[in-house]
């Protein structure tokens, strides 16, 4: 039975049937360079929230009489335009982020998915993720999103301490968060991710670890640990600057992270990325595309994308940012078919820097095969094999460079930012001294 208000199109009907089949972990070998140019992930930005959280500086707005039908039409139009511009033939995953996309209607989600499926091949079992806040996603509403084609949820719990939730400006209590999590797991078994923050002002290690242990008794197979970053322009930043809140202690945050990842490892979770943990193969396919520097299209106000436009000769990838303010974005979409405000071609070196920095965020690292897709001439051995600084990192057990490729060890993953301070200059130096090849491309 389909909840009222959700029109079932051909793709949505096929997707609902696919949801009843067992999930198969589809993260295997990377696609060939040719197919990589015709595949992409799609990010859809819903910019509206019920209120602004105290730590958030994302592109989000408190709605005042939003015409959802007009927003929906613009999202559909922009999706069609960018899919045609990119020459993409297959969309691997769709992620509805925000903002709070669980405030949108399931009909909007279904309309976008149907439009994508009409333009390109969108497999019925593609991962379709929706970010949800507990107060905007009661059980019946989650069921309606499932009927609209969503098959994975990312729930922003952030904390299981009511005082911390109040400090963060969240609209839900810990009890409501766990209730939503229970309902979500019933509707999307094995496909519910939760976020937990660490390093808050005055937060202590032991109580935080108790939160994590409690969450492990309730959570599904995917969990993300995010350290608070104080962003200028946020309420929390101002309170710390004014002295009404203590500044977060970086040493305590580092201890929480180390202790937390150990707890999760002992609970059977694989730390497949710096902040992300999964068991039973429940990795995020969509985010994996980012970390593997695959193409992705961003639609909606302020969305980011990276892809090679059709007709660019297959070499020049562009980083694109859509217009931030929703009303202006809508005007541009209605005039031009899309609201791309900024478009920056990426040089071959810039793309390689991203391949390195993003790939090393994962436990797989950068394999030789993956590196060759972006740089067929200059190998990982050429770049890092003779470096004295890199040799020291290898001897310290922070990095591994072998027949598989370059990757961080368990210890190295926790200090990746400091490792990149050595690795990125090494790449830049090797690039400057390389023998250019007319065959190499981005």
Automatic annotation (TrEMBL):
Similarity comment: family membership: Belongs to the anaerobic coproporphyrinogen-III oxidase family. HemW subfamily.
GO BP, sorted A to Z: porphyrin-containing compound biosynthetic process
InterPro entries xref list: Aldolase_TIM (IPR013785), Coproporphyrinogen-III_oxidase (IPR034505), Elp3/MiaA/NifB-like_rSAM (IPR006638), HemN_C (IPR010723), HemW-like (IPR004559), rSAM (IPR007197), rSAM_sf (IPR058240)
Membrane-crossing segments per the record: none
One Gene Ontology cellular component: mitochondrion
Purpose: May be a heme chaperone, appears to bind heme. Homologous bacterial proteins do not have oxygen-independent coproporphyrinogen-III oxidase activity. Binds 1 [4Fe-4S] cluster. The cluster is coordinated with 3 cysteines and an exchangeable S-adenosyl-L-methionine.
Subcellular location: Mitochondrion
The protein's name in its UniProt record: Radical S-adenosyl methionine domain-containing protein
GO molecular function, one term: coproporphyrinogen oxidase activity
PANTHER family registered for this protein in UniProt: COPROPORPHYRINIGEN III OXIDASE (PTHR13932), RADICAL S-ADENOSYL METHIONINE DOMAIN-CONTAINING PROTEIN 1, MITOCHONDRIAL (PTHR13932:SF5)
